[in-house]
Amino acid sequence: MKLLPDSIRTRTVFVLLVGLTVSHIGSTLVYSTDRDQALVAATEQSFADKLAVLAVLIDNAPPTVRPQVAAAISSPDLEVSWGPASAVPPAHTDSQPYGLIQRSLGAHFGRLDDSNLHVVLSSAPPPAAAGHLLHGLPNGQVLQVAVGLTDASWINFRQHLPGAVNSWSLNSLLSTLVMVAATLVLSCWATGWITAPLAGFARAAERLGMDVGAPPLPEDGPSEVRAAARAFNQMQRRIRSFVDDRLQLLAAISHDLRTPITRLRLRTEQLPVAPEPQAKMLADLDEMERMVASSLAFAKDEATSEPRQAIDLSALLGAICDEASDAGQDAEFAWDGRLVYRGRPLALKRLFTNLVENAVRYGGRAKVSAVRQTSGVRVLVEDEGPGIPEAQFEAVFKPFFRLEQSRNRRTGGMGLGLANTRTIARAHGGDVSLENRVEGGLRAIVSLPDDSGATATEEPSA
User: Fold this and answer.
1) Fewer Cβ in 10 A, N or C end of the chain?
2) Are 216 and 293 members of one domain?
3) Does residue 81 sit in the same domain as residue 144?
4) Of 327, 286, 335, whose CA–CA distance to 458 is shortest?
5) How, if at all, do strands 442-449 and 331-334 pair?
């Protein structure tokens, strides 16, 4: 099964091409067989009539001129001679030529039998000159006929009959090639027209996986396609409603928690307790407030629909690394030239800022580089930290998941940074993945496809 084409379109073209070619070859063979039989029958009848006319002509000529008449009517493919004896053995085969010749001669010579009609059909090779005769058909068997005249002399005929015509002549091959070419063109066009809605569904499903707010699928085409498009759009609306409801719920809960947290802070500050327990309670309230703020930011990022525009990724990445360096962090961007990409500027800035901050916080330094590829742009953010276990590569992208299990945000964060990073990358049609460096540290790989308009003018610097 691996040898079969993979797509519906190529499989349909393959089946049509093979099926029509085989049927065309079969019909050509059947037609050629019928044509050959009709041609042989027509040739034998024509020869019998011709032989009868020549025999009557020689029989009516004076005996003194019969040799000259026989020589005059001879040709390269028909040898005619006259003499006192038969040049053909007194035998015949019960074949169609014998009956045809017997009937054609009977009108002038009366009833003929083996005593005055000898017919022999043999496969002796014809002379080379006869190859171009008989309407250009190849020569096959040789028919020899001897007819006894009324004066007991004999007329001898030797005729080269055409053999079977080659079914695979140049015209037959050209006809097959024309059929194959026409089948390829028409089947490719027809299957492309038929499978285009399937390709549209595939693109829409992929787009939905990256952006739940993607435009709906056009509801046009055949009735089956329109019904499927309506069902797909209804499913997309339900998914969008489900996601929006959950984001609104998260944002509402986070927003509503701010007021009681603020009241708790004020009441804690007014409690007549020792400074140390009061400080711990205030620290817990600060952490709760930061968690609420992170949840609100996450919900806001998920719900925001920022328009795409052309931006210079090299300038953006360079600015992010410069800001980190100004804050006393070790961050550098290795790229010379412009790297133009069509995306959402603020979302991309949050994406790369999160990665750079994580690299600096957990790996000591951040080294950012960009790689231009035929499929788009790939940005690498590397650090020199301990890395993370490979089994946790996917888990760290889940919301609120933290490898560092303490509740101190300064060491472990809220667990929303990488989740937000992957959400932004996938909204652009790309993705974020992690891998441990051989020399130590972690590498974050951001892949952005070129269908958003990525172009680059220079290669990355060493």
Assistant:
1) N
2) yes
3) yes
4) 335
5) unpaired
The amino acid that residue 234 corresponds to is Q
435-440: long-range contacts at Cβ-Cβ below 8 A with a sequence spacing of 24 or more?
435/393, 436/387, 436/388, 436/390, 437/382, 437/387, 440/384, 440/386, 440/387
Q: What is the domain extent for residue 58?
A: 8-162
Q: What percent of the chain has pLDDT over 90?
A: 8
Which amino acid is present at 191? T
From 274, 305, 336, the end of a domain falls on 305
Residues 6 or more apart in contact with residue 450 via CB below 8 angstroms = 374, 375, 376, 377
| 19, 157: one domain | yes
**Residues 250 and 269 placed together within one structural domain of the fold:** yes
pLDDT of residue 356: 93
What is the C-alpha end-to-end distance of the chain, expressed in Å?
A: 46
Structure tokens at 428: 């652009």
Task: Assess contact for 197 and 208: CB atoms under 8 A.
Answer: no
Three-class secondary structure of residue 412 per DSSP: helix
Burial class of 238 by CB neighbour count within 10 A (0 to 12, 13 to 18, 19+)? exposed
pLDDT tens string 43-98: 667 777 777 888 888 888 888 888 888 888 888 778 888 888 888 887 655 556 67
With contact defined as beta carbons under 8 Å apart, do 268 and 282 qualify? yes
Global pTM reads 0.48
Burial class (CB in 10 A: 0-12, 13-18, 19+), 247: middle
- Tell whether 334 is covered by a domain: yes
Same domain (yes/no): 344, 285: no
Q: Residue 153 in contact with residue 63, Cβ under 8 Å?
A: yes
